């Protein structure tokens, strides 16, 4: 079994939750989202994030707006919809339960 594949699958499993969490306070464009994830040591590539943002938008959890940039082409800023905020609230509860359960199991002797 390849440990790197398992690690990658674990990261993919929480990526949607992390992206929604990044956007809970303010809108951001893709490179800001990527920087936040990378600064948190969550290894992510653009090719993974763009399709996920599109899917989250198509699911009604995100919206976007174009904003002119002083240095280059306009930027697409993503933000949570009302449905996205509710979805994130549910994920926060589920994450807390899951994290508690995993901590109990992995800390047993």
UniProtKB/TrEMBL annotation:
InterPro entries reported in the protein's UniProt record:
Metal_resp_DNA-bind_regulator, Tscrpt_reg_PadR_N, WH-like_DNA-bd_sf, WH_DNA-bd_sf
Q: Which species is this UniProt entry from?
A: Flavobacterium saliperosum S13
What's the name of the protein? PadR-family transcriptional regulatory protein
Q: Which Pfam families does this UniProt record tie to the protein?
A: PadR
Task: Describe the location of the Transcription regulator PadR N-terminal domain by residue ranges.
Answer: 19-90
Q: What is the lineage of its organism?
A: Bacteria, Pseudomonadati, Bacteroidota, Flavobacteriia, Flavobacteriales
> What superkingdom heads the lineage?
Bacteria
TM annotation in the entry: none
């Amino acid at each position: 079994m390849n440990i790197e594949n398992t690690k990658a699958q674990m990261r993919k499993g929480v990526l949607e939750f992390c992206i929604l969490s990044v956007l809970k306070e303010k809108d951001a464009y893709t490179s800001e989202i990527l920087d936040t994830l990378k600064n948190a040591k969550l290894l992510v590539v653009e090719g993974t994030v763009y399709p996920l943002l599109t899917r989250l938008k198509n699911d009604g959890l995100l919206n976007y707006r174009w904003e002119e940039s002083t240095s280059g082409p306009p930027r697409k800023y993503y933000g949570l919809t009302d449905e996205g905020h509710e979805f994130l609230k549910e994920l926060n509860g589920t994450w807390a339960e899951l994290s508690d359960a995993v901590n109990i199991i992995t800390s047993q002797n």
